[in-house]
Amino acid sequence: MFRTTTVTELRSELASLLDSLPEGPVVVLSRSKPAAILMEPEMFDTLVERIEMLEDLLDGRRAIADYVNDGNLAVDAEEVFEGLGH
Predict the structure, then answer these.
(1) Which of these, 19, 72, 18, lies nearest to 28 by C-alpha position?
(2) What is the CA 84 to chain-centroid distance, rounded?
(3) Helices marked H in 20-70 — which ranges?
(4) What is the predicted pLDDT for the residue at 82?
(5) Which helix (H) or strand (E) holds 86?
(6) What's the pTM?
(7) Dihedral over alpha carbons 25, 28, 32, 33 (to 10 degrees)
(8) pLDDT(8) > 90
């Protein structure tokens, strides 16, 4: 799934590694342990967007569970609008 390279190889082959990123991420190893991951900016942006969407979904599920457990958490919409001055 992931290709790997070492820090030493990264120094000497950076340009070719960057050119190969459309093939997938590259894990950079330092002393045989993952130290960094190189990926295309678009892939990074997609991952961040997905994480944010999943966090929003979890927040929504928690809010629904809280409401189910305590119906007093709900506020009438008209009360909210009155509080906003509408």
Answers:
(1) 18
(2) 34
(3) 41-69
(4) 79
(5) none
(6) 0.68
(7) -80
(8) yes
- Which residues on neighbouring strands pair with residue 4, listed in sequence order? 27
Q: Which amino acid is at 2?
A: F
Phi-psi region of 75 (alpha: psi -120 to 50; beta: other; left: phi over 0): beta
Q: How far is CA 17 from CA 12, 43, 66, in A?
A: 10, 16, 48
Tokens of 26: 């590259």
Q: Report CA torsion sign: 59, 64, 70, 72.
A: positive
- Say how far apart CA 80 and CA 59 lie, in whole Å: 21
**pLDDT, tens digit (0-9, with 9 covering 90-100), for 14-50:** 999 999 999 999 999 999 999 999 999 999 999 999 9
Instruction: Residue 72: count other Cβ atoms within 10 Å of its Cβ.
Output: 6
**pLDDT for res 38:** 97
Quote the tokens at residue 15.
């340009």
